[in-house]
Amino acid sequence: MTLYDARSRRRPRPTLRLRLTLLNGILLIGAGAVLVLLSWTVVSSALHPSDQLRAGTQVQLADGRTVDARAWQDGLMRTAERELLVKGAGALLAIGAAGVIGAYLVAGRALRPLHAVTAAARRLSGETLDERIRYDGANDEVAELAATFDAMLDRIGTAFESQKRFVANASHELRTPLTVMRTEIDVTLADPDADVADLRRMGTVVRDASIRANALVDSLLLLARTEAQAGRRLARKVPADLATGVSTACASVRQETSRLSLDVTTELAPAPVVGDPGLLERLAGNLIENAVRYNHLGGRIWVRTWADDTQAWLVVGNTGFEVEAADVPGLFEPFRRGGRERTGARGSGLGLSIVRAVCDAHGGAVTAVALDGGGLEVTVRLPAAATTPLLTGSAAVPPSTSP
User: What sections of the protein cross the membrane (predicted)?
Assistant: First the structure.
């Protein structure tokens, strides 16, 4: 069996420092050669004093010799040309060598921050995300590259910390119902006098805890699926209406709003969009469920939908406890509940994270404003249906041909 190496064999190439040095040397020596050639041409054309003398004119030299003027001129020109070429070539070699050495040193100094960037990238790991180049040289392109690399590391570090916090919080949220179930089962089984009523109570607690764990897992899967589509084409894009999702969500929480005596006001004008109807319905459902969950007895909820030529709007507001303005951006992070993390509040803290992910997947945006006196108003903006193309596809299966 013959094995072929599919990896491309790249020819060795000189380094950038060497290429810059060679380029500088070639340009310097070439310019010097042009100057020497130009000087030789000027000297050759300028040394013709005997051309203005009569033929046969003699010239008496300082040593007393008398020679023909034209012969003396030819000797003088040969000597001047030889001296010019020899000394010019020597000077050219000296200047070229000095230029090449200087260019090599200057290029190395200029490329030193690039080596720092390369070394930092090679050392980069989960434990070294706090390292930065912190270039303090001249304000040039290298400084811009170093600053860009540092900014990229800042973003990567923030995302990495967010992911670690997400995993830790998810593990805690999943551990809580599992711990409740195990504790309840162990306590009941350890009681020799447990009767049917105790077993039923245990079953009720285990069922409620499993429902909570199942809801959390569903939310995590929905969040992961939605974030995977952010910045890319949605797997499904069909005409939808934000008002339809609001109506469905309001119907699903009607019993809870009646129990809390909440005043629900809706102004549902058509808000046509193009996207995944399931995700859009979950978006409206999460906002309205949060408006109910974090409200108070006898509070208010208001929902409005409308659209213009370019955007569709969904606004959900509610009364409730006060939210600090500084805590509002953090509400869209996973497992954050009104500025509190895992404090025993109802819900998993993934509602607004899913809302943000759905908006990102549909090319929209979501903002929230803390209201005076308590409560929150969330505004969702999505591209209108008129500005969003449908995602269509077709597959044709050629008919089979019988032999």
Answer: 21-43, 84-107
Q: How far apart are CA 328 and CA 317, in angstroms?
A: 14
Q: What is the pTM of this model?
A: 0.54
Task: State the pLDDT at residue 328.
Answer: 86
Using CB atoms within 10 Å of the CB of residue 217, give its burial: 0 to 12 exposed, 13 to 18 middle, 19+ buried. Answer: middle
- Please give the Cα distance from 41 to 330 (Å, whole number): 78
Read off φ and ψ for residue 58, nearest 5 degrees.
-100, 150
Selection from 269, 271, 264 nearest residue 250 by Cα: 264
How far are the Cα atoms of 265, 282, 304 from residue 307, in angstroms, in the given order?
18, 19, 10
* Alpha-carbon span 113 to 121, nearest angstrom: 12
For residue 326, the 8-state DSSP code is: G
List the chain residues with pLDDT less than 50: 1-6, 339-345, 392-403
Check residue 400 and give its pLDDT: 42
pLDDT at 402: 41
Nearest of 271, 366, 267, 359 to residue 310 by alpha carbon: 271
Residue for token pair 């380029």: 23
Strand intervals (E) in 209-346? 238-241, 263-268, 272-275, 300-307, 311-318
Distances (CA, A) of 101 to 23, 50, 145, 294: 12, 46, 26, 72
As a whole number of angstroms, the distance between CA 114 and CA 111 comes to 5
Q: Rounded to the nearest 5 degrees, what angle is found at the Cα of 322, between the Cα atoms of 320 and 327? A: 120
Quick: pLDDT tens for 214-224. 766 776 676 66
